[in-house]
Amino acid sequence: MGQEQIWDLISKKLSGEASEQELLELEALLRQNPDLHYPMQTIADLWHSPARPGRHEAHLAFDKHIDRMQQIGISFSPEPDLTLAKRLRKNQQKIVLSGIAAVLVLTGLFLSLKILNSSSDPQKAVFRNSSEVSTKNGSKTNLSLPDGTQVWLNAGSKLSYDKNYGNKLREVSLTGEAFFDVVKNAEKPFIIHTGKIDIRVLGTAFNVKSYPGEKTIETSLIRGSIEVTFKDRPAEKVILKPNEKLIVANEEISVPAKKQSIVQNNEPIVAVSHLNYAKSDNSIVETAWVQNKLIFQDKSFKDLSKEMERWYGVNIRFDDSQCDTLRFTGSFENETIQQALDALKLTTGKSVPDFHYTIRGNDIMITK
Amino acid sequence: MIAADKIQYLQIQIARYEDQYAYKELFTELYSYLYHFAFSFVKSKQSAEEILSDVFIKIWEKRKELEKIENLKVYLYVATRNTSLNYAEKQKRTATYNIDEMAGAIAEFYFDPEQLLITAEMANRIRNAVNDLPPKCRLVFKLIREDGLRYREVAEIMNISEKTVENQLAIALRKIGKAIDFDIKKSIPIFLGQSR
User: Fold this and answer.
1) Do residues B50 and B85 both lie within one domain?
2) CA A86, CA A153: separation in Å to the nearest integer?
């Protein structure tokens, strides 16, 4: 009797349908039936073992599907470059020039990926042995690596990998910011080289922000587990858990004229903290950009202006150093740069705004 | 395992921005699951491919109303089921078709014995236990374990009650459990003798 019920309970546990009460019942039943421990554990392992991979077939099937669609007269262009252009238009990010630049770069990537994919043909494979995708300020893109790993590349960023990608390791180099959703493959670890750190992954989703010229490199983990090592101190590593982020000081920047003891030690300044959630809709601040949102919390105008420069593809300069210490919390989604600046002006909440701005082409001057 | 939040995100992208890239993502994300599901009805590679293509053409055609669909994942399974059944009927291969007749058409239960630290013999026993399950039971097991669907979603997709889903899954796990138990009793009787 109890034996029969136990299978129902273990089914519920594995499929995530069990209530707390049922989990307790299961535990009690297992205590009474110790000989069931081994089969239970094996079933749990079986249950959680990875299902068959099918990504490659799916891509082939999609190409066929698009052919069929076009045959019956539905216009659909599967090339991601058009989609990107469209997405940018839809989001009213009116930075047409940089948008076009990104499209060109992306088209280049698409060609090189095609060549890489057909590497069974040795003649073609020699044409190109590395791929690079980059985005200008004011534009973002989304791409699939050969193994199906998804990468969202934020503005002003660059991702590159060579023809050995996927042979033994899956190695990429990143400058700037990207969100990775890595396809699980324990045999071929995914490694990101960026700035002074290397990030090693088995299969997970996380965000890396590593712009040259910024004070820190930030790694935010959404799910899974990742290991971060420091290029100058290979023996040390930090393992991140979901919902944590690792902040590493970027030394080239943080070395000031006055020498500090920490810097002399030549140690990276490292901190682990938690991810931030936006108060308005609970979205994760660190990865909101993937969904076309620029969220900022208690950010100085100076730091925010750097984000806005990349987001909108503009240059922002401060005429008055008092302005750059103003702090802001908020988010931009579909606003133009002008609407965004107006909103910031209003949030200072005074009848006389704390700053004024002038826009000349892509150059913006902030004045008192 | 299908990531529900990702499907939802793609659904919104397609509906609001006619995002072709999101459409491609949705297709490739769900393809292998829906393909095996369609295949279990029509038992033909080409037919299963065409069925999925038809289902996804409809999705693109109604992209603007896509946000009205509450659970796109379930919707796609149900659409795949209906299209498959229509297809099977048209082909008149199995005019009086039902789920109980799909023996052998469900994809092999896939796992790697080495990773699980089990013997090849036990792996065989487990595979046989799964292959010997009645088709409905096997499909329930696959949809929940591999596709990551909830009981109520499977119930809706297979047009059976949630209780039946629950029972079928328990039957599947009991059979697999017996296969493992049998093996261990045979290989290490002394250990078990002590634990009793």
Assistant:
1) yes
2) 17
Q: Judged by CB atoms within 8 Å, which residues 41-80 of A form the interface with B?
A: 42-43, 45-47, 49-52, 54-55, 57-59, 61-62, 64-65, 68-69, 72, 74, 76-78, 80
Reference B81, options B41, B134, B54, B30; nearest CA is B41
Residues A35, B181: C-beta atoms closer than 8 Å: yes
**Residues B17 and B36 grouped into a single domain:** yes
State the residue for tokens 């920047």.
Answer: A253
Ramachandran region of residue A22, left (φ > 0), alpha (ψ -120 to 50) or beta?
A: alpha
> Are B33 and B107 spatial neighbours (Cβ–Cβ below 8 Å)?
no
Q: What interhelical angle do B162-187 and A2-14 show, nearest 10?
A: 110
- Of B97, B122, B153, which residue sits at a domain end? B97
pLDDT tens per residue, range A68-91: 988 888 877 654 443 333 443 333
Strand-strand pairing, A226-230 and A205-210: unpaired
Instruction: State pLDDT tens for residues A115-159.
Output: 333 333 333 232 245 688 888 887 788 888 888 888 888 888 899
> What structural domains does chain A harbor?
2-48 (no CATH), 55-286 (2.60.120.1440), 293-367 (3.55.50.30)
0.80 exceeded by the pTM?
A: no
Residue type, A80: P
Q: Alpha-carbon distance A148 to B125, whole Å?
A: 33
